[in-house]
Amino acid sequence: MGGNMTEYTLKQFQKDLASQAPVPGGGGACAYVAALGMSLGTMVANLTTGKKKYEQYQEEIDKLITQTGKISDELLEGIEKDAKAFKPLAKAYGLPKDTDEQKKEKVMETALITASEAPLELMEKIMEAVILLDRLSEIGSRIAISDAGVGIQFAKAALNGASLNVFINTKLMKDTAKAKELNDKADAILKRGNEAADRIYKTVLDSIR
């Protein structure tokens, strides 16, 4: 797939995702799903702004529109970042069989770290989205509260999905200390993110049923 993936149509992205091409894959899909989740948050904010019923939150809503828009764009950029992070790993797997073992191991180890750090960075960005969705579920327009719930479910799915791309790479690392460091970071974000997402979803569900 040539060019920047964020510029492709939905249909083209879907086709490339379904193909045998290594990217986009699960990581890019997670970034896209997370961006959609945050965009739903922006929608909630846009449906709240200017409404007399929520005028006490107007200043905060204005900030949230800007913040959520920025995070959505950054999450979307994660599609391209994921693809770039996979390139060194693809090259490492494609090294000739007669490559010196020590050199091959060093190249592979570096590539595995790069491929792990990209989804970890995405997880951190998704956590920012979760925090904003949490606030929007509290002060956003009640007519759009279900969309905040959908957004948080997207964020949760993307968060858990991104973690799998961390763990599949750290498991192959020879440097177990580095692998543990990356795994520990991912685990901490997972715990915090899933607890928050489940709480937010329950609050939204309870308010509409």
Highlighted features:
mainly alpha
Which structural class is indicated by helix and strand composition? mainly alpha
What gap, in angstroms, lies between the N and C termini? 44 Å
Shape: elongated
The radius of gyration over CA amounts to 19 Å
Overall pLDDT level: 94
What oligomeric state do the depicted chains represent? single chain
* Strand coverage percent: under 5%
Q: What is the helical fraction, as a range of percent?
A: over 70%
H/E series: HHHHHH
The tally of strands reads 0
Low-pLDDT residue intervals, each spanning 5 or more residues? none
Tally of helical runs: 6
Biggest sheet: strands, sense, closure? none
Summarize the structure.
With 209 residues, this protein is mostly helical. It has helices at residues 10-18, 26-48, 58-93, 101-139, 145-170, 176-208.
Report on this structure.
This protein is mainly α and 209 residues long. It has 6 helices and no strands. It has helices at residues 10-18, 26-48, 58-93, 101-139, 145-170, 176-208. Helix 2 (26-48) packs parallel to helix 4, helix 2 packs antiparallel against helix 5 and helix 4 (101-139) runs antiparallel to helix 5. It is elongated. The N and C termini lie far apart (44 Å).
Q: How do the helices and strands line up, and which of them pair or pack?
A:
Layout (H helix, E strand, L loop, with lengths): L9 H9 L7 H23 L9 H36 L7 H39 L5 H26 L5 H33 L1
